[in-house]
Amino acid sequence: MIDTTDINKSNKEYQNPGMHTAEHILNQTMVRMFGCQRSMNTHIERKKSKCDYYLEQIPTAEQMAEVENRVNEVIDRHLPITTEFMPLQEAAELVDLRKLPEDVSQTLRIVRVGDYDVCACIGAHVYNTSEIGQFKLLNWDFQEGRLRLRFKLT
Ligand SMILES: [Zn+2]
Predict the structure, then answer these.
(1) I want to staple 3 with a disulfide (CB 3.0 to 4.6 A). Which of 44, 49, 104, 112 is the partner?
(2) Ligand 1: centre distance to CA 122 (Å)
(3) Separation CA 129–CA 89 (nearest Å)
(4) How far is the CA of 137 from the centre of ligand 1 (A)?
């Protein structure tokens, strides 16, 4: 029995491995650029998806354009997506486990996007970022500290 941070996500995410893998890259990009947490509220669909992040101030249009650029740069590196199973204690040094439920199992599935991202996840991913396509930021809004952005893949 394996628990992960994706425990509350809908099945749709597992039917859209390209979208879901792009979400991993987007999360890491947001963490690096803004120092925020990975998205805890995501909605992954085949045509378009959305993710929420909590930021201290509204990002600029230039920053959001850079988010899109950075995600595409990572995709264009054709990074392999790899998974391994890891004891909880070992995983704790690698990934943020604060989102895990309290009754989490002692083994986690750790998913890496090349050397760019690592997180605990039970979802379905592509094998290489070359399968994702191009990441397109559709729009975003900022309300009371919550940045909600919508994206699609082309
Ligand atoms: Zn995943």
Answers:
(1) 104
(2) 6
(3) 29
(4) 19
Q: How far is CA 2 from CA 23, 127, 147, in A?
A: 21, 21, 31
Distance of CA 63 to the CA centre of its chain: 18
Query: How far apart are the CA of 150 and the centre of ligand 1, in A?
Result: 18
User: Over pLDDT 90: what percentage of the chain?
Assistant: 75
Domain ranges of the chain: 2-153
How close is the Cα of 100 to the center of ligand 1, in Å?
A: 14
pLDDT on residue 14: 64
The domain made up of 2-153 has a fold known as Threonyl-tRNA Synthetase; Chain A, domain 2 (3.30.980)
**Are 127 and 79 spatial neighbours (Cβ–Cβ below 8 Å)?**
no
